[in-house]
Specification:
With 354 residues, the protein is of the alpha+beta class. Helices cover 46% and strands 14% of the residues. It has 10 helices and 10 strands.
Length: 354
């Protein structure tokens, strides 16, 4: 027999756990086409182990970029201390590399304040140094708000891929060299692992599959120039009230839509709750946006996301002036930071009829 009853039960339970991870992440594996030539189990295990290594490197880099709470708070204390210096002295050039100031957070029993040493730029005034340090504090705070959710997400992914690796390793030890020799009840889950590898960019689909995806019917080619007039992977729609709607179909296209084509008064859309998806833009002023057009754009954003097969999807939208690029240390193509509150709407994922 391929493996014992208990061995198969253990594999099935582990794969079921992996499936729950996928459903929690709203990842649509069904949308990825099957490969013409199935991978062997050892090759699949090698790719999964490679995914774990890459994610662990990414996690280590994120931890390096994550400012500690202690350092962040220290910068806030330094800035407050410099701002508390009497006004008449603030514009004077410092002339030293370190200032001693009163630490009002550390008052002795005698009522006197402890002394705090603040590193400064000798060529700047006290006011300029205070503003520089305060800017660093804000940058650290913003970085933490972005990096820490990313760390949690990567840690969860590592657990998932390690669970996959354990399952595949069990199959390898039971001498299953190819998917055709895996028990039928486990084959769908094995295929899900392969699809997830493709979905997360750890392996590529075959040339045959990619070529098939790029083929366009000849009858549609006359309309393609208008549909993609803003550039490669930027899809154009027209809303029910005649407004242009743009949807990025890649990280580079999302970057273009959000930071080149979006004006401060435009309406910008993205799936909520951290669900990956397209950046969608309604190219009209916020105050002129019709509710029907808002729903129209949200449906497109929901469809072009990893939650497209869900019955209802929550989509956030905000003014174009509220989106920013992340700090340089964690900047990534297509990644944005949202400042201020956004509004949300629940819609059915769908595209307008052609």
């Amino acid at each position: 027999m391929l493996c014992s009853f208990f061995g198969r039960t253990r594999i099935a339970s582990t794969l079921a756990l992996c499936q729950r991870f996928i459903s929690m992440s709203n990842i649509n594996l069904a949308s990825i086409s099957s490969s013409p030539t199935p991978m062997s189990i050892p090759d699949l295990l090698s790719s999964v182990n490679g995914a774990v290594i890459k994610l662990e490197r990414k996690l280590a880099h994120l931890h390096q970029q994550d400012p500690s709470d202690e350092v962040t708070q220290q910068h806030k204390l330094w800035a407050d201390a410099l701002f508390s210096i009497p006004v008449k002295n603030k514009l004077q050039r410092v002339g030293v590399d370190e200032l001693e100031v009163d630490d009002w957070t550390n008052v002795k029993e005698t009522g006197a304040c402890a002394v705090m040493k603040v590193p400064v730029n000798r060529d700047k005034s006290i006011m300029e140094n205070a503003e520089i340090i305060l800017k660093r504090f804000k940058k650290m705070s913003n970085a933490k708000a972005v990096i820490r959710p990313m760390i949690a997400s990567v840690e969860e992914d590592i657990l998932l891929w390690k669970a996959y690796a354990g399952t595949l390793n069990t199959l390898v030890q039971s001498q299953s060299p190819s998917p055709s020799e895996v028990p039928e009840d486990l084959q769908p889950q094995i295929e899900d692992i392969r699809k997830r590898l493709i979905r997360d960019g750890f392996i590529k689909e075959s040339l045959q599959v990619q070529t098939h995806k790029r083929k366009q019917p000849e009858a549609d080619q006359s309309t393609q120039s208008d549909r993609w007039k803003y550039g490669k992977d930027i899809e154009l729609f027209i809303s029910p009230h005649g407004v242009e709607v743009l949807a990025g179909r890649s990280a580079e296209a999302n970057e273009q839509v959000s930071f080149k084509l979006t004006k401060a008064s435009h309406v910008w859309f993205h799936t909520a709750n951290g669900i990956p998806g397209s950046h969608v833009l309604l190219r009209c002023d916020w105050d002129d946006a019709h509710p029907e057009d808002i729903e129209f754009c949200a449906q497109i954003a929901a469809y072009h996301s990893s939650a497209k097969n869900d019955r209802k999807v929550e989509v956030g939208y905000c003014r174009g002036s509220q989106i920013r690029r992340p700090p340089s240390g964690i900047r990534k193509v297509g990644l944005v930071l949202l400042h201020g509150k956004s509004q949300t709407i629940r819609v059915e994922p769908k595209l307008p009829p052609k």
